[in-house]
Design goal:
By secondary structure, the chain is an alpha+beta fold. The chain is built from 5 helices and 9 strands; from the N terminus they run βαβαβββαββββαα. It has a domain at 1-78: 2,3-Dihydroxybiphenyl 1,2-Dioxygenase, domain 1, CATH 3.10.180.
Length: 180
């Protein structure tokens, strides 16, 4: 069994409207749906212990098919900085072309820039990091030509090539070790 595709990732935001405007205006990712969570579900499923909790959920469509699901809880809790070396989610990533132009564009939009564009240590891609209006970390990466070709254009066939060691053999990272 294997999954069909990447669906979405969820982040909690302080203000749904402000987050929607940021992702739509800055990255061209439109809001495609909104829902409100019933108070009882907030208490039972989400564990929100409040007299009259509310939660709005918005779905933002990212070019290429994925969705960013955003949650606005009331009452809300203060944001916390997520350290890189702690297990858990650290950032979302958008594939782009020309990281230098994107960097300059985001500077002109007043986006919080975390790092300058740089080449990855393996030389395959260029990337840099920014923060959204709530401090969520966003990576913008320009895949190298080979990675872009395999991931974007070859689709399922590129996945088959990778699984069968025809590109670069990464199986050592997931094959179970046998006890002797």
């Amino acid at each position: 069994m294997r999954v069909r595709s990447f669906s979405h990732t969820g982040i909690t935001v302080a203000d749904l409207n402000r987050a929607v405007r940021f992702y739509w205006d800055v990255f061209g990712c439109p809001l495609v749906g909104v829902s409100e969570v019933p108070a009882e579900r907030l208490r039972s499923f989400f564990g929100v212990d409040a007299e009259q909790p509310t939660c709005k959920i918005g779905w933002i469509r990212v070019p290429g098919g994925a969705v960013l699901e955003i949650f606005e809880f009331r009452p809300d809790q203060p944001a916390i900085e997520v350290p890189w070396n702690r297990a858990g989610l650290t950032h979302i990533c958008f594939n782009v072309r020309n990281t230098r132009r994107w960097h300059d564009y985001l500077v002109s939009k007043g986006v919080d820039i975390v790092s300058e564009p740089e080449q990855s240590p393996n030389g395959g891609q260029s990337f840099f990091f920014v923060k959204d209006v709530d401090g969520n970390l966003i990576e913008l990466t320009e895949l190298g030509a080979m990675n872009d070709f395999l991931l974007r254009w070859m689709g399922p066939f590129g996945g088959w090539l990778a699984r069968h060691g025809k590109v670069r053999d990464y199986r050592q990272y997931y094959e179970p070790k046998t006890d002797e």
